[in-house]
Amino acid sequence: EVQLVESGGGLVKPGGSLRISCAASGFSFSRYNMNWVRQAPGKGLEWVSFTSTGSSYIYYADSVKGRFTISRDNAKNSLFLQMNSLRAEDTAVYYCARGGATNRDGFDFWGQGTMVTVSS
Amino acid sequence: SYVLTQPPSVSVAPGKTASITCGGNNIGSESVHWYQQKPGQAPVLVIFYDSDRPSGIPERFSGSNSGNTATLTISRVEAGDEADYYCHVWDSGSNHVMFGGGTKLTVL
User: Fold this and answer.
1) B2 touches A at CB < 8 Å
2) Is the dihedral of CA B84, A47, B72, B70 positive or negative?
């Protein structure tokens, strides 16, 4: 059974940093592109970042570029998002989502999300 | 960047057909995916590559894509279909994933 389990969310002050993780199981993690998607309270889905299977291709939404860093450890079946210079508008549930073999693929499995709150 | 436009809300009576649109410039040349999200839950993929259904998704869910509009169609709507629905496209021009703003489906 495919499982994606996010962790590491919490309350952080504006300007602070946080690293969230996604533990994958039930599939060959190294064969799939992975993404982070967030959802602010009461709002729609916003894509955050993409990493290809071997991290050769990495992309970010304009709203987080230069502040967030996506990474993965295929040996440990884990996906990470390092978030720096956090702002109130980064407050959201952060989901990791499994892509496919190409960047055009849909996201067929999602974690349950981890809540990040940026507030003083 | 590429913009996807969805109606904020669609209402339908039980047993009828609901159509949720996703507008974008020449979206018919793109691959469109659709997600269902119920309150407090993670999104679920219901249609991929315009019209394919993942295993476990009822045949009542179908999709089409042509010209400037992609459409998610839900036939014989049930109360359990009430949810938010989002379309998704990969924008190769910006190397960004784009989501539509979401459509809240209300079953009357």
Assistant:
1) no
2) positive
